[in-house]
Amino acid sequence: MMARWGCDRCGFVAWTPDRASMREVTGSHLLAHHSEAVSRSDFRTTWDCPYCATAKTAYDTDDAVEEFKTHLHEHVADRIEEGVHVGERVSWDGTVQVAAPVDSADADALRAHFHDGGDLVIAVTASPERTVRLLHDELEAWPRRTVVVSTEAYPFEKAPDLDFSEIPIEVVELDPRLGPDELGETVSRIIDANRVAGDVISLEVSVFHEIVRSFDLQTACDFVRMLSARLDDDGGVLQLYVDADADPNVSTVLNFLDDEIDLKVAAEDGRFVRRG
Ligand SMILES: [Zn+2]
Ligand SMILES: [Zn+2]
Fold it and tell me: InterPro entries, from UniProt (predicted)?
């Protein structure tokens, strides 16, 4: 769980590991809105708070700016919520675009965060071992049920330290010739077979770049729309792990899916921020 703060002047939202680390986020963000409140004249730097009558003057600009950021933070500190999950932003029922290179530590941080909040975790990935390792290393406890779907075989002989008879996990190996439609149907059947009443579903799709590369725009869009519609029945968060900067075709498909995507989120320096 994390601390959350949303700016009431713009759509910016940030989640940090705790309340203390939110101080830098709020201060820097509010300073950007009120940069005109800092001025330098007569060899000294002055800040004049837009929210109250406080004004300060100092010789050292860096010190003055830091003090102003701390001051701005105090104006919003009581609006920081604690014990919050990013999934709550979409009421655990929606589609989230995770904007990060698919194999990056930033993407992993969001995977761990979302899957930590799920009871039934389904991960569609090109690197099943990496996914299992992440869950094993980063989650305090395994979700009630995890199903990893991949066209790659799980390298059981290379990972002998994980005893699959002791963790509630299943690895489904898909025929690489199958298209998005069959992949979607497989995921739907996995939900049917594994979901129990009250489960929160965390569904990760980390193969969207491959889908866009191999199929036409309509097929890629239909895949996301149908998965999202499938989750409408049972609730749950569909996460699309995509790096639009790395592939203009992915960027185009995402534009077509704009109405479908409820939240766009990225990771930066151990915190999560809403994008766009
Ligand atoms: Zn703002
Ligand atoms: Zn003030």
Answer: DUF7504 (IPR055927)
Q: Which ligand is nearest to the CA of 55?
A: 2
Same domain, 72 and 31: yes
Distance from the alpha carbon of residue 53 to the mean position of ligand 2, in angstroms: 6
Q: Per residue in 193-212, pLDDT tens? A: 999 999 999 999 999 999 99
Question: How many CB atoms sit inside 10 A of residue 237's CB?
Answer: 27
List the one residue out of 86, 201, 205 whose CA is nearest residue 144: 201
Regarding whether 152 and 254 lie in a shared domain, the answer is: yes
**Total domains present in the chain:** 2
Task: Order across the sheet with 55-58: list the strands.
Answer: 38-41, 44-48, 55-58
Note whether 108 and 175 are same-domain residues: yes
Task: Dump pLDDT digits (tens) for 167-195.
Answer: 899 999 999 888 999 999 999 999 999 99
